[in-house]
Amino acid sequence: MTQTDAAAKNLGDPGKTRRVVVVGGGTAGWMTASYLTAAFGDKIDVTVVESAQIGTIGVGEATFSDIRHFFEFLRLAESDWMPACNATYKLAVRFENWREPGHHFYHPFEQMGSIDGFPLSDWWLRYPRTDRFDKDCFVMASLCDAQRSPRYLDGTPVDQGVFETGHGEETARATMAEYQGAQFPYAYHFEAHLLAKFLTKYATDRGARHVVDNVVDVALDEHGFISHVKTAEHGELAGDLFVDCTGFRGLLMNKALGEPFISYQDTLPNDSAVALQVPLDMDREPLRPCTTATAQEAGWIWTIPLISRIGTGYVYASDYCEPEEAERVLREFVGPEAADVEANHIRMRIGRSRRSWVNNCVAVGLSSGFVEPLESTGIFFIHHAIEQMVKYFPSGRDNDRLRNMYNRSTANVMDGVREFLCLHYRAAKRADTQYWKDTKTRPVPEALEERLENWKYKVPDAETVYPYYHGLPPYSYNCILLGAGGFDIRHSPALDMADETAALAEFERIRLKAEKLVQELPTQNEYFAKMRENA
Ligand code: FAD
User: Where are the active-site residues found (predicted)?
Assistant: First the structure.
């Protein structure tokens, strides 16, 4: 774009950050481009360049409930995008066999109550109603067991209150990091490549330029800032800000700028995955409203129900399992439905770039960092990064303080999630193979080691979990700690003397509410069958 073009597009002072070049057209690239156009309209000029030869990762199908803020920021209602992306609802992650064969527990999207200053989990340890912590303390666990939809057949959501924000042009838009007040009761499963396609249209309709080409070179100026990227057929693309969305390659951030990558592999050894996309007959098979993570000999298998297919894959550590063995295990797990389906083997780079914003380059998505997909955090990292990018958007080059704050915030999120994932393996009672035995002695981040010792005497709360925002509230830690069963957790001694009346009433309220909702709500299959009828 010439300066005259910039002026014609009302891009203001060309010395400021106005031209943004996004390299990469996967989930990260198109989420970034869409969000920037939604945030700044025609005040900036966005170009997305993506290769026709280099594919996207293509998985990435389960999300956090906070993703709702992303769609809301784009002023999109569920009916605008869900059908286009074969999306379903996700109320929880269901963990199978992490404690012992045949056992399962949930990590739901539902805040846990607190009674007289003690988390409900603490009361549960003192006065368990059943042997199911998740069912006694959360309504969602029962809805998942009964495979319920979080919406009634007329579309009314199960928890109306948190949805009353609307999508009108005048409505103020909240971002997830600042808006921790209400817990949305569900997230989504969707086909990541369909979302990228949907967002391509969204962003290009709003003025983003789409270049399909390979970036063959990245040019730096004398200050180490990127001046342009060179493409094979479209010449040079100059910009003020470059967003590296090239996936595990980290073409701009790691290769061109040489920013080091900090591996998490010492604490999280799963570095490989094999994935299958299995056809699903919705008229015959149940659509579970949750992501399932089933523990295996050297890792775990994800199962993600979508409209018309199931996304599944085995995440494993290559130190313990060969790719052929992983594929064999996965195929056996899925059964004959996958016989004709081709497997996709993926090597994962686990960890994060030391900084995700260097000079005029921001890495978003896998180029910035990734932990294994156990709690579906990949798209959450992207969403968080682009919210923060807008929050700390620079006016020009001289913005060290903004960059530093951004870098601290994104590093905190990934380091926090790393701790949370390490907890899963330490807390899992399962220790039947060398892989699971080693999870009990493998180092975890030092601070987590200390926290784990404390949590044996006092369940996690806001004062004792990882202290910076990372998307996971204290109740999430309680779910894993008490669900996975590997630790002997004690209740607070004070509860032996405190009056339990209110706590017992709360358990009863949860039980009755769950019972009522299981009776009232349709199954996911019924809900989406109705949606199809209405379409
Ligand atoms: P990619 O999808 O790899 O896209 C890279 C883009 O860069 C492509 O468009 C490519 O063409 C382009 N590119 C690369 N080099 C060049 C070049 N030289 N010139 C031009 N273009 C170039 N996240 C979740 O939230 N939930 C999940 O359930 C989940 N499951 C996952 C399971 C696995 C096994 C893995 C590995 C990841 C999972 N993730 C999940 C993470 C999620 O897949 C990613 O966060 C997401 O897909 C973003 O990827 P990306 O856009 O950063 O990179």
Answer: 90
